[in-house]
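Problem statement: downstream parser choked on a complex file, so we are re-checking the raw output for the zinc ion run. The parser issue turned out to be on our end (a line-ending mismatch), but while we're here, posting the original submission so the record is complete.
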Amino acid sequence: MDTVAVDLGPRSYEVRIGRGLIGRAAEEIGDLLRRPRVAIITDENVAAAALAPLEAALSAGGIASAALVLPPGESTKSWPHLSRSVDWLLEQKVERRDVVIALGGGVIGDLAGFAASILRRGVRFVQIPTSLLAMVDSSVGGKTGINTAQGKNLVGAFHQPARVLADIDLLDSLPAREFRAGYGEVVKYGLLGDAAFFEWLERSGPNMAQGALDLRQAAVRRSVEMKARIVERDETEEGERALLNLGHTFCHALERATGYSDRLLHGEGVAIGCLMAMELSRKLGLLPQEAPGRLAAHLSAMGMKASLADIPGDLPGAERLLDLMGQDKKVVDGRLRFILMRDIGEAFVAADVPPEAVLEVLRAG
Ligand SMILES: NC(=O)c1ccc[n+]([C@@H]2O[C@H](COP(=O)([O-])OP(=O)(O)OC[C@H]3O[C@@H](n4cnc5c(N)ncnc54)[C@H](O)[C@@H]3O)[C@@H](O)[C@H]2O)c1
Ligand SMILES: O=C(O)C(=O)C[C@@H](O)[C@H](O)[C@H](O)COP(=O)(O)O
Ligand SMILES: [Zn+2]
């Protein structure tokens, strides 16, 4: 097992990454519990794959559990399901010293984490990420929240988990499309801050997608290490943490434009958004000419979406997409900020990007 410590003073926690963690759940979280009961929030797909083994492991360790099983998909990250989750936690008489478990992908982690953050003004929660995306990104760092009609993640809170258990075996049941989407966030780390990791991904990505467990665990560990170090330096995104948003200004506008539907998964949008951010950087004369082609070639080798043309159905025009970006949380004084790149592994925050250059990138697709 690998352990990555996230050092945030009183909010510090461990991310434990390995095989068989679900079967040892009682031992892995027992020390956090003040009484032997937990409330689990999950979705239907994850419940089918992982809820029974988790409940059995907890029960074998003398820990009682109750579970709320929500519909799968991005539209669950919404006011109605937040309200339902909080009401259910109250019905279960979850107390301030209890622990809520988020068992699922990023949708469940963001929703259950937000519910925990507002329940009785804040109860602790444990992330048990079950998708690649959740293992490498959403379970770590404490961003929780929901989408609204106006845009992505617009209501939420910073609420750090008390522990994260990333059981690599859970990826066996993850659909291939979801694995590739999660890989979009993995590639992001190489692009934003570690060229050697990107090169390793170019060599290892296809075998990882085929199921190589050691490669999967190594990718999760490196991603979590990178995210943990950034979050430790800038927990609430005053500065450097915005680098983790590489590709997301494009991605979030596209997710909103596709109605948070399965036309475009978040991680797919991140991969497309990273390529667009690279095109934008190249267009502005900041990034070597050949760099975007290198990412495009890797995404193609991984069988991933790489352009707007790969998104099924109609999309709004470039002007409308630019307009949707206006709700991005990186906006300052009404002006967009983008994460741009000087090279693979070297991203930075740019405040003065000409909208015309963004429109050109969007028009080129
Ligand atoms: N908080 C953060 O820092 C952060 C970071 C990145 C992404 N996110 C958010 O995460 C969400 C995307 O997360 P996601 O890609 O995990 O999506 P998701 O939670 O919808 O999970 C993907 C799909 O896979 C299924 N699934 C998950 N694990 C499974 C398993 N082990 N076996 C079988 N099926 C399984 C789910 O039911 C779902 O249908 C987005 O809302 C995004 O905004 C948040
Ligand atoms: O942890 C972060 O910080 C991130 O930006 C990680 C992103 O991958 C993630 O999608 C996050 O939810 C985006 O946050 P937002 O503040 O742009 O909504
Ligand atoms: Zn993301």
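For whoever reads this later: The chain has two domains: 2-173, 176-364.
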